[in-house]
Every structure is written in structure tokens, then in C-alpha cells.
Amino acid sequence: MAKPTQSEVIIPRDDFYNKIGKDYENAFSHDPGLRKIVERFLALCPVKACILDCGCGTGKPVSYMVAETGRPLHGIDFSQTMVQLSRQQVPQGNFEHCNMLDYSPPSPDYFGGIIAMLSLFELSRPELELMAGNFFKWIQPGGYLLIGTFGAEDCGTQSELYHSDGHCASGIVFTFMAQKVSITVFTKSGWNKLLEVAGFEIIHTEMDRFAPSAEAVCDEEPHYFVIARKAL
Fold first, then answer.
1. Is the pTM of this model over 0.70?
2. Residue 214, Cα to own-chain centre: how many angstroms?
């Protein structure tokens, strides 16, 4: 990936997602690999498990797929526009305007499953480590976590962007919705280690490359999916 001047690069915040709104859904909701992994995850979760969609976006496809199964659904997102779209498109769910870093569930071990689908890129490494621990606290024993992300080694990452331990890289520049953005991601083995250190057992991993629609002006995305379980 070509590296533009730093002035062209942003870490996307809520105002960015407020602007792209429904255009984001149009570019990404048709992703067959994403739908396949969500179906696999839901097949593992009990039929009455309450599911958290952490970074729910417009509600489609993830929250919509969960709600279609009849499971209780709670979604959070730091973009007010995204939350409003989710409420309109998935009326069966409960959606909250909230930064995941500030979120607290009604009680510990509240959720039977948590999905964080392509919603962790804006976080720093310490914040990612914090969220891994939070996910573990928020999930019931025997519950499942699904993360959709990238592996740093699949992003054409320059060697100087890797942290000293080689497990994570920051400042990776990626084109997303016609904007150069800076992201932090672990390597694939780094993601696995992050979740294992938090207490999870890795159940399943897979790679899937996805090309958004040309109108979206996005780089091809090297998706890395991880399903992990909290032991009983």
C-alpha cells in the first residue's frame, strides 16, 4: 500500500462514520465471507443467548442476522448516525450510542456471545488489550466471541511499523471509503495470543479477502476471523 503524506491520513472517529452512514452499508453488507463466519458463530451460541454487536454500524448485516434468529440483541456504536440506522433497520434489537471503551453491561458475564466485526481498527494497542479483557468479563462461561479484523502481515506492513515484540503494528495506512486511515492491528498469531492471554480458548480461525464495491474507493481487505470461547 502506498504511503501518503501524514496530513492526508486520519484515525477515523465518530464524525467520520456519521458522514459515511448508509454508504458504508452499501459498500460492505454484501460480503459473503463475513456472512458465512457470522452464521458459523451463531450456530455455536445457545438459541436464547443475548448477543452484543460491539461496533454495530448500520445494523446490517451482523445485527440483522442475529435478530433474524430470534436471539436478544444489544448493539453499541460511537457514531450516532450508525445507531440511528441500526434502530431503523433492526427494530427487534436494542441499540445504544456508546464508545466501546466506556461501555459497561448490566452485569458481569451478561452476554452469551459478542461480535466485534471490523470495529477495532481505531483502537491503540493498550485499548485493544483492554477490550480483550472486557470481552472476557462480559461473556458468560461457555460463551463465544467473534472478532473480524486484519492480520498485520497481510497489510503490506513496513517493518518499522511493528512493535518491538513483532506481534502488533501501528500506523498502517489503508484506504477506506475514499479516505486514507491509520490503523493498529496484531499479526494473526498476535490476535490469537491476545485472546488467549485474556483467558479465551481459540476455537476457529480463517482468512477471507474481500473487495468492496468500486464506488466505495477502498483497498481490498484481508479479513482475519477468530472465534474464541470462554471456558465453563
1. yes
2. 22
